[in-house]
Amino acid sequence: MANSEHEHGGVHVVLLPYPSQGHINPILQFGKRLAGHRGVRCTLAVTRFMLRQGEPSAGAVHVAAISDSCDAGGFREARDVDDYLSMLESDTVDRLLRS
């Protein structure tokens, strides 16, 4: 968050939906409602694979592409759910929080 926003009471909300179909749209709608409030900025973090399936109509919500280490084939690249989630949290969440 930029210093000027923080000094003026601005809030930056990062929305990180579970990366599968059916999870992005509800959290995007929530983000649009939040972004309608003064001083609130929202970023929807979506995997690169999901973005290739179709960019969400975000409106006032900024969309940021993140890597889940399965950029080419999505969840199918992982052995199972635990493997996928460990790849997602290992690097991606750390980079997202630092940006």
UniProtKB/TrEMBL annotation:
Gene3D superfamilies: Glycogen Phosphorylase B. GO terms for molecular function: quercetin 3-O-glucosyltransferase activity; quercetin 7-O-glucosyltransferase activity. Belongs to the UDP-glycosyltransferase family. This is Uncharacterized protein.
